[in-house]
Amino acid sequence: MEQIVSIDKAKAVIDSGIDQAQEIIKNNEELNELVTKVQTTVKNTPVLGDAVADLPVMVSMVRSYAAKEYTVVSPKVIAALVSTFLYLVKRKDLIPDNIPILGHLDDIAIAAVALKLSEPELKAFREWQDAKKAEEA
After folding, report:
1. pLDDT tens-digit profile of 87-131?
2. CA geometry: angle at 122 spanning 86 and 41, to 5°?
3. What is the rounded distance in angstroms from the CA atom of residue 124 to the CA atom of residue 135?
């Protein structure tokens, strides 16, 4: 995977969507539409769903941030995640998805880099979710 899409290339792809992501974050309706599309993409792409199991947590953190329930995460991290979501559902792929198996490797690489870059924030978010569930119980 790294030979097809390098970590530096994946970071560049994420960075290239930051401005658009920041605009989408300001519009809850547009953000919710994007997140819903990402969830559908994950469900309909078994290779991606299996390879990046934490993508639903990334989606949940963005939704909680947008709802102002969870705001202790850096806006830069949220923008990077939204940029990743944009790549997964809207932008032209580095490798077209209609190429069997190979077509999803770029999606996996981009999502994996976003996951790695946001790992500490995702861990803190999971802890917050667990505490919230315990509090509600």
Report:
1. 888 766 666 666 666 666 777 888 888 988 899 999 999 999 999
2. 35
3. 16
pTM of the complete model: 0.84
Work out the angle at residue 131's Cα, subtended by the Cα atoms of residues 125 and 133, and round it to the nearest 5 degrees. 105
Q: Which domain holds residue 35?
A: 7-136
Tell me the pLDDT of the chain averaged across its residues: 84
Q: Which regions of the chain does DSSP assign to beta strands (E)?
A: none
CA distances from 38 to 18, 24, 61, 124 (A): 17, 14, 13, 22
DSSP state of 26: T
Please give the DSSP secondary-structure letter assigned to residue 58: H
Q: What is the number of structural domains in the chain?
A: 1
